[in-house]
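TODO from last week: model Chloride channel protein.
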Amino acid sequence: MEDFNKLVEAEAANIQRQGEDEEERDPESNTLHQPLLKRNRTLSSSPLAIIGAKVSHIESLDYEINENDLFKQDWRSRSKTEVLQYIFLKWLLAFLVGLLTGLIATLINLAVENIAGYKLLAVVNYIEQKRYLMGFIYMAGANFLLTLVAAVLCVCFAPTAAGPGIPEIKAYLNGVDTPNMFGANIDSKGLDLGKEGPLVHIGSCIASLLGQVGGVLFALEEVATWWRSALLWRTFFSTAVVVVVLRAFMEYCKSGNCGLFGKGGLIMFDVSGVSVRYHAEDIIPVAVIGVLGGVLGSLYNHFLHKVLKVYNIINEKGKLHKLLLSLSVSIFTSICMYGLPFLVKCRPCDASSLESSCPTTGRAGNFKQFNCPKGYYNDLATLLITTNDNAVRNIFSINTPTEFHIFSLTIFFALYCILGLITFGIAVPSGLFLPIILMGSAYGRMLGIAMGPYTKIDQGLYAVLGAASLMAGSMRMTVSLCVIFLELTNNLLLLPITMIVLLIAKTVGDCFNPSIYDIILELKGLPFLDAHPEPWMRNITVGELADVKPPVVTLSGIEKVSHIVEVLKNTTHNGFPVVDTGAIPPMGSPNGATELHGLVLRAHLILVLKKKWFLRERRRTEEWEVREKFASIDLAERGGKIDEVTVTKDEMEMYVDLHPLSNTTPYTVVESMSVAKAMVLFRQVGLRHMLILPKYQAAGVYPVVGILTRQDLRAHNILSALPELKKSNGSKKGH
């Protein structure tokens, strides 16, 4: 005890000296024995304020298992039949997620191929009749109408359906309680957008309706924060069901029963017939593609960040401005898509071409005739007057070294760079995969033309590598992109050079800014916790963070109803430590110490008030009393509000036994733990609350120092409250 008192006195003297010392110092050079922060509670008295001036109201999900008396009793009483039933239901859920996702994906592809196909057939018909103005009016009008429908649905009925949906899913799987995430989703057509992002969002919405978030193809690398082998198997099973459903519909549609949806219904850029051989001189162009992909990908992220900031200002002005912005982009897109092919010269068909017919006049195929005479084709129209899927097939086409002119590819690349920047962010569902693939394949093919005399790699394969490099440079994925491009190209021989390109592009891109999804997460204000803490976080303890927060709000094990109501009405906290005073300490513990019994959730307190589970005297309840009033399923509900509860004046004087409802095993850390270590634990376990316990136990020492939540561990919030940390070089991020 004497040693403890000496330590307390030394700590108090150290704090006093630090308060008097105004000399500036580098936080990186701080020793672990010197507290970095002033110990005060003057930051904010607001229950909503956590750390910092800019406080988000979004907190974490309750992933933690609530090990209270009811849970323990339910777990002990489960029979083998109930356990097997639980396992069966989990796999049934995975099957239903895959089945419904596959059905909806098929319907979306059917709609896209038929709507876009019939639209293009009508436009081509007008062009063949030399009625160019009518062709433009029809194309622009159809695009305008489709965009209007999608924008109205997003703006008025399902705001969360706008955008790709992947950043929200990523935040949700990081543990963020993303508000209104699982809304309706709509797909638009006629814009420079893909359907991959909305499909991911749709799959997650289906899984949410059925019970939990489902996995997606690249969830392991890009989306999920934590992963388990059991979840991997169920995700693989769901994905297999989706593939089976899609393939079954494709086989059925080959007979012509699905309108224009047939062989080209799903993206499959088959280059399996190409014999890929590598030579020493091919290393240089492959490396150049990787470097270009990293640089261009980071530039795309940078400029898209600026554009989205401007769009946020416009969108904040109201629904009308959102609609006008979306429709303006639609009209601009139609003008560019239809008008730019008139700027290029017609190219003569190659008599030795493997294409069955040149020129083509249908909705698909290479060598589009457009405005050219017989025997000539318009290479830019081949890429623009078609669907995005067919555009990628055309630009990925092999054994076509002279099909596309460098001038046409330059126009195509510049156009899609512009459209990719101004289209993403408007009030319609959108994906980034296809626009980035089109941009990357364009400069990849241009590099292939330039390297033609020095390499034997086909230009179509250069386009594939260019698309892969730009995706890695923007999205910063590697493993999942290898799998995706392996499936798309159906050529295992491309895997080695694809891996090299992806690694180079990601490494170069990481030198400039974060991935595009991380940038969108920041713009949306979602409190995403990074995998790696900042270096300066190792010099701050969780106890020091607790000292710049308002005092922790605790409840007694047997609490008065009036105090519970007061706490719920005056705070927005989700959890409250339950502390027992006068507990009988174990042998060797100091007398008079208080006991931390556990943590009770706000939802459970509201449930108690709704069920009016009150006691007239201050006492502990028996186990049968708890089971008589509550079932384990009751504690799974989360949506109650204190305003919905009515408590009489007499009931205010009664008591509630919180012991049976408290989580007796909450995650705790000692106050001397570094913030960096606490953040890693918080993120990996998927917590909403982390209790801070004192390092020393003694009479008069409260058993809880404070509570950390997601907002407390965000670097931005810590730096806002502690501006002296901004002087640390380690706190600078590569934004």
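Done. Confidence is low (pLDDT under 50) at residues 1-55, 207-212, 729-735.
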